[in-house]
Amino acid sequence: MTTELRLTESQKLEVGKIVSILNRNSGFVRAALYGEVLRVYASKTEIER
To answer: What integer pLDDT is reported at residue 45 of this predicted model?
Structure first.
């Protein structure tokens, strides 16, 4: 499952912190910030549990 959100300049800094926390603390959710687009990847198997 993949979700994309478009961010404003003011949202990018805060979201960057969240992306860092997600990638560090979770094995089944990954997030990446590409310019103004936030992409979140989640393992469907883990979400269903």
So the answer is: 55
> Which two three-digit tokens encode residue 38?
């936030």
Total domain count, the chain: 1
Residue 12 to residue 7: CA distance in whole angstroms: 6
Long-range contacts of 24-31 (CB under 8 A, 24+ apart): none
Cα 11 to chain center, whole Å? 13
Domain that holds residue 23: 2-48
Binned average pLDDT, 10 residues per bin, the chain of 49 residues: 76 79 69 79 58
Read off the pTM. Answer: 0.48
